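Something for you to look into today, if you have time. Could you write out one complete protein record for me, on any chain you like? Leave the record below and I will have a look.
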Amino acid sequence: MKHYPFILVLLIASLTVKATDPVAGKIYFSNQPMTSSTGSRSSFNSGENIYARLELNSGTIKEAFRIKEGKGYPYIQYRVTITNSNDYTMGGSGRNYLLLKDDQKDQSSLNFDVMPEPSKATTLISATDDFTAGYGYFPLYNTIINEKLKPGKYTVKVELYSEPLNAWGSYEDREKWPTITEEFEFNFRDEDIARVISNSKEAGDFIYENAFRHTTMPDIFSHGATITDPMATNAKVLAIVKRDLPKRTILKMVIEKTGTLWSLAHDDFGLPKYRYFYPGVYVAYKIDGKCYIGKITLRQDYSGGGTFGPLHVGFTSGNDDKGIDCAKVR
């Protein structure tokens, strides 16, 4: 047996992370999307899909993880760690944010994806807690790919936790984080590498496409403005949008009600740069057989001498546009 210097033993002890506040419950795993813990398993190979289900002993997800309402999207944090047979950590996913939907917060169970089949992916995970970046990240898929995992048997630890605020509005110390973890055996096979890479991208694309998808038409489409300014009537704006975005089939358009119609933008020297149409223009459109809701900004570039060029599309919400079933566009 190898003996370490006493000072090193003390150093290792001082770096030991304090235990977190355990959440009373259990995480179960299956190769099929779960509705109960029946049929759960503790061993998988890399050619299978993997799903998880958290079941609390009592209370709700919101209560167990001490989630406060009223600021931003509700979430819990989701981390995956892979260790080998020598208990050596091969890689981990770091900090990720799992969105809790409205019908999940007040439940005593939570279904979530681990290595889902792309078309069955339902868990929205983000790199940021305001869910503005990193859509489509699946911790286990990405950890395998990032670490270029070699074939062999591993232990995968799945951890759900939160960093709640105390009465002063500051984050609690780590030992007070509500946390629950569970492990499963994972046999990673060389012949599954291509499948893992492909599924990771396809599942990510599927979630990205459906993140925050509209279930009904946004309220703005019921409260649009009628513009009488001859330079930007509703009909002229619609014609401009169709002209400048020819790949989109515009199904419905509405102009936001505002008190101001035009605003002037200047460059760093205070000179006119362009004049923009202040109200937002919202459109429901179809492209490549799918429907989306987006926002458009119109502007006129400065031509000099106090004049401006023709009105045209300046910006679109682009990649932030959310999908909607085409049948619901009305």
Observations:
- Residues 46 and 188 are 5 Å apart (CA to CA).
- The two ends are 75 Å apart (CA to CA).
